[in-house]
């Protein structure tokens, strides 16, 4: 039984159908409103995440920018082997090993004359390379670069000292070679025998004239400026023995020389004692220089 005042058909039925329609529309509106809230919330969440990413990326970029700052330091070049002389003796052409010639590895590559004396030309050759920054560990020494230094006058017999580290001297009209490290002038070695004299340099040339074996040494037994006796020997005994000072176990020969304007000239050699052998060749040889010579080698008597 229906409640009082309600009917299934007629005006009351129409009213019921109208109420259901209104209820359906209200429900749909609420559903759509709810969907809009979800999308707006998602958009807000995405925007927040994007802001967070941007904020976190910013310090990283700053750090990267800071790490790319390059610090440069000047160094003296020190890898020298030889140099050439050009321009009628007034230009030095010097090969130098430096980092690769580019803006990342090399700056201020310079070669200049700092002093020019009658004996020495002083040069300074420097360059700068990075000691920090992205290329600090990537700039090893590269190919040979050539620098030219103009002199105020022909080099002549002057030595060349570079960065107070290496000294060069002339070996020909167009070339110089390294003769010492440390920046000190080198003592010239004569290219031909000096006049005969009772000096170590002259004795060295005399020994060389005997065609000695490798590691030979000498002992000046007697010299008066006109005649010379050297004992030339080499180790023949225990390891580490050094020349005639090794004693009986060394191989030693007496060598006799006559003075000349071109140095000492070999005139005889002997293994026997005294002056008998040399005075057969040169009777005028002073006895005082040979009388005390002992027999050596196979002629030496066991002590």
Task: Give structural attributes.
nine-stranded mixed beta sheet; alpha+beta; single chain; 303 residues; four-stranded antiparallel beta sheet; disordered N terminus; 24% helix
Produce a short descriptive summary.
The protein is of the alpha+beta class and 303 residues long.
Task: Give a written overview of the molecule.
By secondary structure, the chain is α+β, with helices and mostly antiparallel strands. Among the domains are: 72-181, no CATH class; 200-299, no CATH class. Helix content is 24%, strand content 32%. The chain has three helices and 13 strands; from the N terminus they run αβββββββββαββββα. The strands form two sheets. Strands 1, 2, 3, 4, 5, 6, 7, 8 and 9 form a nine-stranded mixed β-sheet that branches. It has a four-stranded antiparallel β-sheet with strand order 10-11-12-13. Strand 7 and strand 8 form a beta hairpin. The radius of gyration is 49 Å and the shape is elongated. Residues 1-66 and 237-245 have low confidence and may be disordered.
